[in-house]
Amino acid sequence: xxxxxxxxxxxxxxxxxxxxxxxxxxxxxxxxxxxxxxxxxxxxxxxxxxxxxxxxxxxxxxxxxxxxxxxxxxxxxxxxxxxxxxxxxxxxxxxxxxxxxxxxxxxxxxxxxxxxxxxxxxxxxxxxxxxxxxxxxxxxxxxxxxxxxxxxxxxxxxxxxxxxxxxxxxxxxxxxxxxxxxxxxxxxxxxxxxxxxxxxxxxxxxxxxxxxxxxxxxxxxxxxxxxxxxxxxxxxxxxxxxxxxxxxxxxxxxxxxxxxxxxxxxxxxxxxxxxxxxxxxxxxxxxxxxxxxxxxxxxxxxxxxxxxxxxxxxxxxxxxxxxxxxxxxxxxxxxxxxxxxxxxxxxxxxxxxxxxxxxxxxx
Length: 363
What we know:
Radius of gyration: 21 Å
Distance between the termini: 23 Å
Strand content: 15-25%
Number of strands: 13
Structural class: alpha/beta
CATH class of the largest domain: Alpha Beta
Largest sheet: 7 strands, parallel
Number of helices: 14
Number of domains: 2
Helix content: 40-55%
CATH architecture of the largest domain: 3-Layer(aba) Sandwich
Strand order of the largest sheet: 2-1-13-3-4-5-6
């Protein structure tokens, strides 16, 4: 909006079990109040999407999430042919449902798709099998947290002050298989006097609780469930170490938030995660551990918590990494794409135009 665009946030439907927070004063609007079920539910979604396009006719749509990326291309072409599309991928496409992955190969080549954004080079690499017309539109724009969140994180970090030699470990993310929280719980019996909190909710909640019981570490684990962003960040700020051993990630916002809190970072040794903890000059600003090696994860946690110098070193590296995640850079890159998509010179003043961000659901 500051650049002269009239912006809006539109979702096909809200993600179950969470409430999306407003961004820069903009509230999310949804075409349907909940995930569509069955044939008639999906037909209702298509009908509402058609009506929205006919009514709004946005100049640019920045689309996120697999279903939205695929759906918006043909419908915009028919019902709002002057709308330029910028698609975005926030996780490796191998994670998508096979049908959506196949359709994306073709819809991304359409003439009304002007750019295809990946949030990391690791995500872009999963698009290597796309046709040349698709790959020619690809660009990497790393994630960043907005200024009001960054200010909140800095305030929390300052209030925490010099960290004592605590032994609190935090993870943050949905309780589902791809987040691989079970690996962290299996590492708990090999940690010395450590308490783990996993902030989030999801279908694996009961399984993770049962796993902790079976391993005899239930007293060392907290599952506080879903929390609003400010409360979740406050919980994170009280920890001594951040762990994220997901099977895959695009460019994790939770990891960026932990870095801005100055928490030492331990992540899974997969491309998206290693890229996320690597500074621009190639310095590794966290510790990667191999998937499945829960004893190796425990050794890494013990090493950091037992050694104040190592903990301080990794905290400093995390803050250095955080300093490279600049929200204004992200915004300027997207403004450049919007200008190019609408045929404006990159140096011209930005007129008051309409840009919408479309998502099929939001995590």
